[in-house]
Amino acid sequence: MIDKAKELVSAAKTKMSDAVKFLEEDLKTYRVGKANPLIFNNVVVDYYGTPTPIPQVASVTTPDAKTILIQPWEKKMIPLIEKAIMDANIGLTPQNNGESVRCNVPPLTEDRRKELIKKVKAAGENAKVVVRNARRDAIDALKKAQKDGLPEDAEKDFEQNVQKDTDAFVKKVDELVSSKEKEILTV
Fold first, then answer.
1. Is residue 180 located within the same domain as residue 114?
2. Assuming Cys at both sites, which of 10, 26, 59, 84 could form a disulfide with 45, CB separation 3.0 to 4.6 Å?
3. pTM of the full structure
4. pLDDT tier for residue 127 given thresholds of 50, 70 and 90
5. Please, which residues bridge with residue 44 across strands?
């Protein structure tokens, strides 16, 4: 019974960790005033009928701090990449020179910064919800295990472990959100 409880705690910790990792990856895709090729990871282009992220059909590089260069592996993808960037509404205007697509990264306006901070806070809150749901599911499963024969003191210990993990992951989410806010506000 103790092994089952350990598995429950471990599974909850894994879910919490995954939520934080997802938040980290999501925050990397936010454009914050300097060229970052990761912002195209969520921009998809129609590649032979399959929605495909731009980095899988082209080389995405940053020749300087304010420019992103996209060099498709097939020239016929250039107009599709341009359209995908415009449709994604990420605040970039693609420029086609026949060989590649160049995007100049404009400085963020005050309104865009506020909008991005709202998105960051919302993403952080979603991650916290996932962490809390994992805690709730684990505690419910531990209480059920107690009814099935897990000693009460062991159940309480495991519950405390789950709460410690929850607190640690919520703190990590808060740290990620506040560091991204600082990055957005840095002019």
1. yes
2. 84
3. 0.73
4. very high
5. 53
